[in-house]
Amino acid sequence: MPQFPSTPSFSLSGKRALVAGASSGIGMACAVALAEHGAEVTLAARRTGALQDIAQDMSAQGWSAHVLELDVSDVATTAEAVARNGPFDVLLSSAGLARHSRAIDTTPKDFDAVMGVNVRGAYFLTQAVAKGLLDAGRPGSLINISSQMGHVGGRERAVYCASKFAVEGFTKAMALEFGPGKIRVNTICPTFILTELTKTTFDDPDKRAWILEKIKLGRPGEIEDIMGAVVYLASDASALVTGTAMMVDGGWTAD
User: Fold this and answer.
1) In the predicted model, is pLDDT for residue 200 greater than 90?
2) Is residue 27 part of a domain?
3) What's the pLDDT band for 98 if we cut at 50, 70, 90?
4) Which of 47, 96, 104, 165 has a Cα-to-Cα distance from 57 of 20 to 30 A?
5) Could you give the maximum distance between any two Cα atoms of the chain, in Å?
6) Distance between CA 158 and CA 153 in Å, rounded?
């Protein structure tokens, strides 16, 4: 019989995962995907009421889910919470903020708010989880939810684009630094995903037409489109993947 290679496992059994921004949308979907594949998942967000409901429903499915109140914009408290509850083998950083306007109308308040969560919060959350792994001498996979807008420009999205370009940058730099510790750092870059947060955008006929014209597959994204990507990057199936961006954009950035 021929000696065929074995496909690396997508199982996350025995792994502890922290999902920041797990109270809705992409973060919630990623938490479900990780738990479904065997991870012990800690759901983190500011809204613990929503998290409790999600954790209860996940537990009813036989999955392991815990709740952690976490505001990533509070760097010191976040670092303490991660140190107290970790180490985590997997991080899915999905906490994010968008305040869209024309660049000419951007206010310092909106700029600082977006950067405080999308860049500062994500940076120091990733740092905190990496520190726990390095101190424990354990490998891990750190995943930042970025955006296609971390690779291209977008209408009324100068601040948002700036924040996601920054996420792409620190992800690559951290991948270089943490690689010797067998800690991988990557991003997932979705296109426009249908969620409650994007409803107003899709309800605008002009914006919806622009989105569908740019997405080559001819449909907006669904949260389910992100779930396979996170399982792949969290698992041993992506053991040689680090410092890169996984585009889940329906072809938006292909031209």
Assistant:
1) no
2) yes
3) confident
4) 96
5) 68
6) 7
Residue 211 belongs to some domain of the structure:
yes
CA gap 246, 208 in Å, rounded? 24
Please give the tally of structural domains in the chain. 1
Q: Is 123 a catalytic residue?
A: no
Q: Residue 119: pLDDT band by 50, 70, 90 thresholds?
A: very high
The active-site residue, picked from 160, 178, 192, 232, is 160
The verdict on pTM exceeding 0.85 is yes
Residue 221's domain comprises 16-250
Under 8 Å CB-to-CB from 215, ≥6 apart: which residues?
191, 192, 221, 249, 250, 251, 252
Is residue 4 assigned to a domain? no
CATH number of 193's domain: 3.40.50.720
- Residue 159, domain member (yes or no): yes
Residues 182, 139: Cα–Cα separation, whole Å = 5
Q: Which structure tokens are listed for 156?
A: 């009324």
